[in-house]
Specification:
Elements (H helix, E strand, L loop, with lengths): L1 H16 L4 E2 L1 H7 L2 H13 L5 H17 L4 E5 L12 E2 L1 E3 L5 E3 L3 H5 E2 L19 E5 L5 E4 L2 E10 L8 H21 L8 E15 H4 L3 H6 L24 H16 L4 E6 L5 E6 L2 E2 H21 L2 E4 L13 E9 L12 H20 L1 H6 L22 E2 L2 H11 L35 E3 L4 E3 L9 H24 L3 H16 L11 H9 L8 H4 L6 H9 L5 H56 L4 H32 L4 H29 L10 H6 L3
Parallel strand pairs: 2-9, 16-17
Antiparallel strand pairs: 1-8, 2-3, 4-5, 6-7, 7-9, 8-9, 10-12, 10-13, 10-14, 10-15, 11-12, 15-18, 17-18
Helix pairs in contact: 3-4, 6-14, 9-10, 11-14, 11-15, 13-15, 14-15, 19-20, 19-21, 20-21
The structure holds adenosine-5'-diphosphate (ADP) and magnesium ion.
The site of magnesium ion has 3 residues, from loops.
């Protein structure tokens, strides 16, 4: 009985708080005049532009609502190309003509903001004399209150109209895929669908460490990952953390986090411990891509903020600990119509099946033809530690379909019956697909891009990245295939036979991208090479594909990026790679010179002193002191030399002006110099006394939350 009541209380609590800090449809309907509400709905659902009269009414209602919920300021909340979010707060406060203080917020202020944003990266898109960009409300994503500030989700552009953010191209890519999908649906006789949106459910991984240990490590503070650290006696080998019971301190944090996210209308649903110790995962119920992206940014922000309240620090880095699994973000992706149909859901009728197969083929063809773009959409210095390191999916793009679906495609390709008992060959549009249980499709976790029954799961994105980047690419490359399909089918004299030929031809031509085996296996690397698949292991390998002519043309064709926008993003991503490695290398030199070398030097002095005293006083042999001193001294010298060397290559790196050359130099010279320093230091950590080591060990970081 008690439990039952508890469940009811919980349900009531969630429904009571859900979306309370969001200016959503319900609030709009309640607070706006009927015609205003109707006009705004048109803007939201059909993308109609908003006139100033309506905007004024909406702004006023929004302000009243926000003030009632304790807000005093508003901000245009946007997503510059740094991949995090930005906000500049403005007060509602003003004065009327009698000099009396009032709170105001106009339609103009709602629709458009003009932050001086000259310090955001723009990759050469905005001349400095014209430093201002402008922000424009994205009415398809609701305004919300965060920390007492009304946040208005916005796009961020330069005065010449170039996108300076991640939201604008994401919205453009959604429009592109909408347009092409509608053409395809029309060919299948779906006249009543007006709008198709891509949907995303991003699963977010992260680590939690105790704040008191975090504060003692400059590497965590400056770079978000450990740059030194010997393995602890226990790692993740027991696999006892995965789905294990959640510690009460962590559970309290999670409850708090869920509650705050629910208030913001984020549909967080699942939470569990991950494979590595101290690693956790959180997943929301999927939503429209741009909202899912906004929500994922909020989720990352809140994970970090609420962890601090519990004396914890959340690490969103892709690889916080060497030798321990890193963190990713699984981007579950599908396409959904405004009539509520998931276009990647296999249907019950031959007709639905044919349509499903065509969309499936578009994804397969897109993955094969645009391996480069998919790979580079997740390329960052942090993610380079995961991809291809036998834990995350490899850097090679392939598609997992599951044995059954793969068999079906094979039968279509070879014009033979799918089921040996049946005689008829699989004819698209004439046959029902055999039912395949969803669960069997979901179990290969080594694939970078897996069909999981009614959606594709792109498993390569890093845990700290915005999901905008990979979804811009997914939407655009799939839109392009759908365009090609529509161009062919619209002209075909006989739709059915053209469709069959198209699907069969696509399978034949692109089946090399389908791989159902173990992606972590070394033999796959060989096999993929034989199939001619790309293996772009590092960020500087991958990013230059962005500015290849065919890719620029692709983005231009769908009006997602123009040429300058592609170049600016390329430059920003390469420079970010360089900056991250630069900070990491500097931090290593600093920690070595200021903490490790002096501590170990003092330790060897103590050993030498003890040794000398014992010899003098008791004429003892002192094997322990002597041997340890020898080993420690040798490693200390090695660490010193490696520090000098890292410092030297770093100075050389700093002198390189060309950002492309710099990126390759960091990869080929700085990264090896960093590992050459780490090796003797980690050995020294193992050899020295616990109280000598200047910062907390892996053991404390990974198992220190009690
Ligand atoms: P698993 O860990 O087995 O992959 P989860 O339940 O953790 O499964 O995550 C699955 C994610 O996929 C959830 O965020 C879910 O909402 C999302 N998802 C389900 N259906 C769709 C869809 N049609 N489009 C996009 N995402 C979806
Ligand atoms: Mg998953």
């Amino acid at each position: 009985m008690g439990l039952h009541k508890g469940v009811i209380d919980m349900e009531k609590k969630i429904t009571d708080i859900f979306g309370t800090l969001v200016f959503d449809e319900e609030v709009m309907e309640e607070r706006l005049a009927k015609d205003t509400f109707r006009e705004l709905q048109k803007t939201i659902k059909e993308g109609k532009s908003l006139n100033i009269k309506i905007a004024n009414a909406v702004a006023n209602a929004m302000k009243d609502w926000a003030v009632e919920h304790g807000a005093t300021h508003y901000t245009h909340w946007f997503q510059p190309m740094t991949g995090v979010t930005a906000e500049k707060h403005d007060g509602f406060i003003g004065t009327n003509k009698n000099g009396k203080v009032i709170l105001e917020f106009s339609g103009k202020e709602l629709i458009k903001g003009e932050p001086d944003a000259s310090s955001f990266p723009n990759g050469g898109l905005r001349a400095t004399f014209e430093a201002r960009g402008y922000t424009a409300w994205d009415p398809t994503s609701y305004a919300f209150i965060k920390n007492g500030v009304l946040c208005i989700p916005t796009a961020f552009c330069s005065y010449s109209g170039h996108a300076l953010d991640k939201k604008t191209p994401l919205l453009r890519s959604m429009q592109a895929i909408n347009k092409q999908t509608l053409r395809i649906l029309k060919l299948f006789g779906n006249e009543n669908v007006k709008n198709v949106k891509t949907t995303v459910g991003p699963e977010q991984e992260y680590f939690l460490v105790d704040k008191k240990y975090y504060e003692q490590r400059k590497d965590l503070i400056y770079t978000g990952r450990t740059l030194f650290g010997a393995p602890s006696p226990k790692g993740q080998e027991m696999e006892d953390h995965y789905f294990g019971t959640i510690k009460s301190r962590v559970q309290e944090f999670m409850n708090d986090l869920n509650e705050e996210l629910w208030k913001l209308g984020v549909l967080v649903k699942t939470e569990h411990n991950e494979v590595a110790p101290a690693q956790h995962e959180l997943a929301p119920i999927f939503s429209t891509t741009n909202i899912a992206t906004d929500h994922n940014q909020l989720t990352m922000e809140l994970i970090q903020r609420i962890a601090k309240k519990h004396g914890l620090v959340a690490l969103l880095h892709e690889k916080p600990f060497d030798g321990i699994n890193g963190s990713g973000k699984h981007n579950n992706w599908s396409l959904s119509t405004d009539t509520g149909v998931n276009l990647l859901e296999p249907g019950d009728t031959p007709h639905e099946n044919a349509q499903f197969l065509l969309f499936l083929c578009a994804v397969i063809k897109a993955a094969d033809e645009h391996q480069d773009l998919l790979r580079l959409s997740v390329a960052t210095a942090g993610n380079d530690h995961r991809l291809g390191a036998n834990e995350a999916p490899p850097a090679i793009i392939s598609v997992f379909l599951g044995d059954e679906l793969a068999e079906i495609l094979k039968a279509i390709e070879e014009d033979r019956p799918y089921d040996s008992k049946e005689k008829e060959v699989m004819k698209i549009g004439a046959h029902v697909l055999p039912k395949f249980p969803k669960d069997t499709t979901d179990r290969n976790r080594t694939s970078p891009f897996a069909f999981t029954g009614n959606k594709f799961e792109f498993r390569m994105p890093g845990s700290s990245s915005s999901i905008a980047g990979c979804n811009i690419v997914l939407n655009t490359v799939i839109a392009d295939e759908l365009k090609e399909f529509a161009d062919i089918l619209e002209k075909a004299p006989d739709f059915s036979s053209a469709l069959h030929a198209l699907i069969q031809g696509t399978i034949k031509e692109h089946k090399r991208i389908i791989f159902n085996g173990n992606g972590y296996d070394d033999s796959w690397v060989e096999e993929a090479k034989k199939r001619g698949l790309l293996n772009l292991r590092t960020t500087p390998d991958a990013l230059p594909y962005f500015i290849k002519e065919n890719n620029i043309e692709l983005f231009k064709r769908h009006k997602v990026f123009d040429e300058e926008e592609v170049h600016s993003r390329y430059e920003i991503m390469m420079e970010e790679y360089v900056k991250i490695l630069h900070i990491e290398a500097l931090t290593m030199v600093n920690m070595s010179q200021k903490e490790i070398l002096p501590a170990v030097s003092q330790y060897s002095y103590d050993l030498a002193q003890t040794c000398a005293m014992k010899t003098e006083v008791a004429k003892l042999e002192n094997v322990y002191e002597k041997e340890t001193l020898k080993d420690v001294s040798a490693l200390l010298d090695q660490a010193f030399k490696a520090t000098k060397h890292l410092d030297k290559v770093l100075k050389e790196a700093e002198a390189i002006e060309d950002f492309e050359k710099a990126a390759f130099y960091y990869r080929d010279e700085v990264i090896p110099a960093m590992s050459a320093l780490r090796t003797p230091c980690d050995e020294l950590e193992t050899l020295t006394a616990e109280n000598v080591w200047p910062f907390p060990t892996y053991g404390k970081l990974l198992f220190g939350i009690l």
